[in-house]
Design goal:
homotetramer; mainly alpha; about 75% helix; globular; disordered N terminus
Amino acid sequence: MKSPPPLREFKNKTRLEAFSDGVFAIAITLLVIEIAVPQHAGSHLLSALLHERPVYVAYFIAFMSIGIVWIEHSALTEALERVDAGFLRLNLLLLLLVAFLPFPTRVMQEYLSLLDTESGGERTAVAFFGIVLFLMSLMLIVLGKYAEREGLFGSDAAEKRLEDNRVKYQLAPSLVFYGVATVLGLVQPYVGVALYILIGVYLILPVRTVRRLLHRGG
Amino acid sequence: MKSPPPLREFKNKTRLEAFSDGVFAIAITLLVIEIAVPQHAGSHLLSALLHERPVYVAYFIAFMSIGIVWIEHSALTEALERVDAGFLRLNLLLLLLVAFLPFPTRVMQEYLSLLDTESGGERTAVAFFGIVLFLMSLMLIVLGKYAEREGLFGSDAAEKRLEDNRVKYQLAPSLVFYGVATVLGLVQPYVGVALYILIGVYLILPVRTVRRLLHRGG
Amino acid sequence: MKSPPPLREFKNKTRLEAFSDGVFAIAITLLVIEIAVPQHAGSHLLSALLHERPVYVAYFIAFMSIGIVWIEHSALTEALERVDAGFLRLNLLLLLLVAFLPFPTRVMQEYLSLLDTESGGERTAVAFFGIVLFLMSLMLIVLGKYAEREGLFGSDAAEKRLEDNRVKYQLAPSLVFYGVATVLGLVQPYVGVALYILIGVYLILPVRTVRRLLHRGG
Amino acid sequence: MKSPPPLREFKNKTRLEAFSDGVFAIAITLLVIEIAVPQHAGSHLLSALLHERPVYVAYFIAFMSIGIVWIEHSALTEALERVDAGFLRLNLLLLLLVAFLPFPTRVMQEYLSLLDTESGGERTAVAFFGIVLFLMSLMLIVLGKYAEREGLFGSDAAEKRLEDNRVKYQLAPSLVFYGVATVLGLVQPYVGVALYILIGVYLILPVRTVRRLLHRGG
């Protein structure tokens, strides 16, 4: 059987990084345009703004999630020596999920109703969001595994091994967290949301720096 | 007759790549903002979300189409040694099509009605989308031909010849596929849509990698 | 009098180019999101789409205008050796105009009514658009003059002189064209629009390449 | 207690700059999409456009604020030799504020009513905007302090000290200005707005260049 026409490969990872950075940056910045300004609130503007808690919570969670995946993605591609056609395509699937995240975020903003009457759609909204986060974490692991298997990391074998170990060490928890949060969200949506917030806060806290500073002070 | 004022040329391709990457990344990420959140679905949110099949299908097709054109474009410009004023302008025409694609995508999302009652506008919507894809593939070939004719590829003649052959080999199928899908779409819109999906899935599958992995396993 | 706190200068032009490319790319790609999909057109979708002529015309003009300014801007910054705080700020003013252009574009899309009944707002819409284009061209000249006066171009004086001459040679026509089109637009809006289209088509045509190809063939 | 899984560090600041530039560029360009085109204004389009003063004022203030923070951020990261996980996370918090700014901008556009009847929400709107600006300035200082404490600047100690001094010298005024404008905005909203405009105009004026040119002429 004749070989199908291959996608033209390009080995330089610069374009991949530039394009990916663009998609990450746009997805993370687009999150804001769906936050609606309260209409005709007059002198009650402050309470109207404060009332939109679910909107800010979902914004924060989504922003942190994309930010964290961007950090992971940067660390992964920094360790690469080159890319190939397969990596480009898998990367495109990851970006598909990243670019899609603003949609489940908006669903959550619409159907979460923290401390208010229930909308009835909380379970679906929280789980929908969690599934996309879960798939994003999964795709990052797939990308790392693929790069290892295809020898895309530098020739420095020790480096590569180290990379691999760190990928395992580090991404597995995210994957488990997001899986658990998704399943919990199906039963107790607000426990799921609390978990998303916890993951976001935990990951954004410069844990090691804080500890180092504490040690220094101690 | 006096020569008209030329556009100032610049030879460095870095800016061209950065600007193009930006347009590709924004166009591909903007696709999501038109997906509407179901209103007042309450506990029927899940079925309301699942009901929006045409929206997800069109999103997937458009995302993959832009992604593939981005890969092709990156491979083309990576092979360039410099750019000239003509290339910049032809590139601008390609970007015009890329930036425009979200519009036919939205038209398709509005007028496709998979498995539901017909909207009556399916033929137009599918063909409109196909024509833009067809023109995108055509502009890529024109860009490649122009770069070859004007000697913009490296001085390495063998390399250049190879590039050229690969461009022909690879882009012609896309062109034919999209042309056929467009014409079919005019008669049987859902056959056209099925073809778009097939092209997207086919191009995103890392065919050679899969085969190599299979051979390794065999 | 004590010196006011200066903005910290940075001399590396890479960030300036990256940020500017981003703004250009986003402004040019955002133009599409305001094109409305015809609602409930059913089997009349084709004629509903064709009916939106002013929308496509304004889209084309705005896209080409931003594209041309991007090309000019790239040529200018490529010739720079470094940037200073003043250049950064003037550049920010140019970007303010570029980022603002989608608004007059939308005004034109709303108030032009090619071949249809008049909206009454054509004059204002066409002149508003023209004024922003005029200011964009003006800011480009100001940027070039500033860079020359402050010695931001390379130390190669001959190069610099050449740059300067070319800037004058080339941008003055745009400035005059846009000025004339704006004033004409106030009296005869559709003559103004026709001029915008002409400028767009003229600038995008690779005139010199076409002539070279003709000479080759002759 | 076992160490928590660290975020993978990456030391190369290029990705950080590219991603940050993307977020800055998108946030600054997105500001325009919320400016609404007057509907059915007919021949009164000009007065309808002029009537939207608060919209343009808020647009100008927000554009200049993001632009200035971008310049400061560029100067800071240019002086860095490397980044670490803590810097990445703090930078993410700064970007969270930058990406969020379009929302308070829209609130101000909705609730300011320059020279018209009061909306009742001016105080809240002006203070909300000011708080975000204040936090942005604060985060810039935190980033600079963090980079100094963690030794992320070059090994050239004198350079580092200089950097540090300049950061203090320069950012403290912004912080004070924004704090004062916010508090004043709570009492006299239009005094707050006037201060925002003043800061924007002051920072965008190339003060030193103007003085140099004056001296030259004198």
